[in-house]
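seq:
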Amino acid sequence: MDLTVIIQILSIGLTIGALYALIAVGLNLIYGTMRLLNIAHGELIMMGAYLTYSLFTGMGVSPLLSIFAVMLFSLLFGLVICAGIFLPLVKNRAQSVALNRVRCSSFSASASSSQTLPVLCGVPTSGAIPTSRAW
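struct:
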């Protein structure tokens, strides 16, 4: 293999590893401070990626420059989700009941955003429902 290919593989691997570490630190921070597991955390990251891509392709903004706008938008969107969905469920409830409600709402936010964000961003879909013929 050529040396440039090896350097590219190493840099891509380090970049993806750093992204996974950043996601893990974010989940750990949320769980450590609020004691709530936000399953929709990945969808917030997906939303940031779609927004960065849309700014790059639609307006020609460099992805490095759009990081600040995307971080601010993601912060505000996360605060809206926390204040609008999670905190009302936790307030004045028994701890186990509140955590189960937060888990359910987090799963529903994850499922709905993972299905609507690609459609809103114009990702082409086949329209067919994926099925498995494994069984």
